[in-house]
Amino acid sequence: MSEQAIIEAAWEDRSLLSHAATIQAIESVIDQLDKGSLRVAEPTPSGWQVNTWVKKAVVLYFPIRSMETFEAGPLEFHDKMALKTHYADKGIRVVPHAVARYGAFIDRGVILMPSYVNIGAYIGSGTMVDTWATVGSCAQIGENVHLSGGVGIGGVLEPLQASPVIIEDGAFIGSRCIVVEGVHIGNEAVLGANVVLTASTKIIDVTGDQPVEMRGHVPERSVVIPGSQAKAFPAGTYQVPCALIIGQRKESTNKKTSLNDALRTYNVAV
């Protein structure tokens, strides 16, 4: 049987988790995720494809692991998951106290400031994960992305069909932004500080004569800032959060530019 078939069978019958073939298949998938040869979600010519059987393997990895105590210098941990190792060989800069779990792929040239990367995540080359940023389970981060300080990228294991958060190449995610519930950020988009995007958050393009609303996706090269919109409730009308697309990143704007430089064109103070 293929690894996929073994994992699908174990998903339906958890008693199979005690079988050596099942354990071997699950561990093989996690190892492939760690090396980047397999992904929870991947780009295809027709769009992003979620490999649900791989997500199942990640979920099933937890029950086949035992709690253990391990040390890193003076620090002690007690968990089921091993930490990622051999960063020098992989060409990754890791600043204390950055932590990444085994089963997360981090490409050459990535910089991890004190931050956290969970199992199943994928981070492309040249990306900066800044201080106190978190990359949740199975999140897909492209190349040359900047996740600024305190950014929260949500993880997703279940429901299995749910897409993970996807941040495309060259995107700049501003300080304290939160991107969760499978939101997709397009190539070279810029999120200003404190933008919060969930699957239900209205993303409103206000660059034309009429607002254009969307959810779950920020188009490539869009410049986005926090906003609010009036909504009527039985108790009255109140402002609820939304996100505003206020323009497009200019072709002349270098991919490595600072967030302030990218927003200065639109006279936005962040």
Description:
The protein is of the alpha/beta class and 270 residues long. It folds into two domains: 3-61, Tetrahydrodipicolinate-N-succinyltransferase, N-terminal domain (Tetrahydrodipicolinate-N-succinyltransferase, Chain A, domain 1, Orthogonal Bundle), CATH 1.10.166; 83-249, Hexapeptide repeat proteins (UDP N-Acetylglucosamine Acyltransferase, domain 1). The protein has five helices and 26 strands. The chain has helices at residues 3-12, 20-35, 52-61, 87-90, 259-264, and strands at residues 41-44, 47-50, 68-72, 75-79, 93-94, 99-100, 105-106, 111-112, 116-117, 122-123, 128-129, 134-135, 140-141, 146-147, 152-153, 166-167, 172-173, 178-179, 184-185, 190-191, 196-197, 203-205, 212-214, 217-218, 222-233, 236-248. Strand 22 (203-205) and strand 23 (212-214) form a beta hairpin. Helix 1 packs across helix 2 and helix 1 (3-12) crosses helix 3 (52-61). The chain is globular, with a radius of gyration of 20 Å. The protein starts with a helix and ends in a 6-residue tail after the last helix.
Quote the average pLDDT: 93
Give me the CATH architecture of the largest domain, please: 3 Solenoid
Q: What percentage of the residues does DSSP assign to strands (E)?
A: 25-35%
What distance separates the N and C termini?
Answer: 54 Å
**CATH hierarchy class name of the largest domain:** Mainly Beta
Q: Level of helix content?
A: 10-25%
Number of helices: 5
